[in-house]
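Exam revision sheet. Question 4 asks you to relate a sequence to its structure. Input first:
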Amino acid sequence: MMSQVISAYRIKKIESIGEMTAVSQEDVVNHTRTIVQGLEALRNEHTTILAGLNTALEHSPTQAQQPVQNVPEKAGILQKSLDQIELGLSEAQIMLALASHLQTVEAEKQKQRAQVRRLCQENMWLRDELASTQLKLQASEQRVAQLEEDKKHLDFMASIRKYDADVQEGEAGHDQPAKEKQEETSTDYFPDDDGDERSTLSPTPPAQFAQQVSAGYEIPARLRTLHNLVIQYASQGRYEVAVPLCKQALEDLERTSGHDHPDVATMLNILALVYRDQNKYKEAANLLNDALAIRKKTLGDNHPAVAATLNNLAVLYGKRGKYKDAEPLCKRALEIREKVLGRDHPDVAKQLNNLALLCQNQISQDERRGVPRDEMIGKYEEVERYYQRALEIYENKLGPDDSNVAKTKNNLASAYLKQGKYKEAEILYKQVLTRAHEKEFGAIDGDNKPIWQVAEEREENKNSGIDEKKNGSSSTGPYGEYGGWHKAAKVDSPTVNTTLKNLGALYRRQGKFEAAETLEDCAVRSKKELSEPMSAAVQARPSSPTRHHDDPRHQHSSTGIKKIFHAFGFQS
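Answer key, structure tokens:
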């Protein structure tokens, strides 16, 4: 009977547990408490029955044996049931404790959720505040950028008068002698091995940029001011302003004059040179080829402007290392200039210099590729002929003191060095230094010696123990021993400084280390003295804006460009 009750209770408990899976936690806790109460009552009942059986077993030992023998068995069964009831009560207590813990955890979770909701609201508020502040900052930056652009616009508009005055002066002096005109012209050389120390993205100097654009073609009045402004922007490296300015002018010219017009070719040439300074060689080549086709069509195949465009295209190919493609272009430009200007014109000498440098770089390229030197002898002779003829033209037309004479001698000397003709190169270097010395200190005599002669004397006397300061040689010269000669480098200082370094390297190759150190020390002094005023000029010049696309100062650059554009009479 008792086992049936226990089995029924277990089945009921299992059914109640199954029902609890579909009820809430609170219902489960209530059912558990009810079960605990039932188990406690059942435990008390079992305890009472077990105590009665034990009492009956103790006080009736002499009665019938059959009932007494069943009492221990019943007592054992009751004890097992009682143990299971205790286990159930323990499990129920654990469940109640767990329920209490879960309630505590749930309460803490609700508290944390409330805290998270509060933090999210505060975060949204802070985001709104940040967005509002950023909008205010952006508006302020835009106002500052607009004010800066307006100020720059006013500054450049004020400079228009100066440029117009320069143009008028150029027109008034149009009939001046050819020598004065040539002195205003800056030659466009390929960089030689020693003379070009500019970085890859260094902007072209204004005078050189202007000469490359306008050579052989007079810029019309309506483009002069715009042309001058583009040159100024490009020479300062402000390509983010120069390029849109050129493009807008180009669109207006094509709309008003058509594509096949010399003015369009001039603007294409300007934009191509700006792209070349930015190392955008492909775009520059396309523009120059377009400009060349227009000038050939409108001006003829033998016009100086065609030669200028051919030269610029050859220079571009040279910068890309395509010397073989550049050579025929350069030779064609030389042919045109010889035919139009005459064989002894300074522009012909400039073209000869360019052609020689191009061939010289082509030789260097072939050497790196392993071409035998015997196969390049004819090319070396060709380079020498070009330099010698250019040197003869410069000396006859511009005089021995012209800066192009020294530059050409340096280039010719470099060609001699590559062929191992050290004596010929040394003579040219000494001629350059001697002429610079005479211009600074007067005629050469026993007490007025050029720097290379002082260097050679120091080389001869380095082991003889002669003290130049004791025998008075340091005080008889106009510059005190040799240290003060660096002032003479003010005369065409880049070329003289290059010559000092080149001759010093030649001395060092010949084992004349004392003479080499003398010239190198002089070159260092010269470069240092030259850099000081340049540094001061750079610091004094107002800084140009940094060219970044994300710079807020450039967000309104197109507005300033349009204002400048309208000021020149163009339609945007």
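Marking note for examiners. The longest helix spans residues 65-172.
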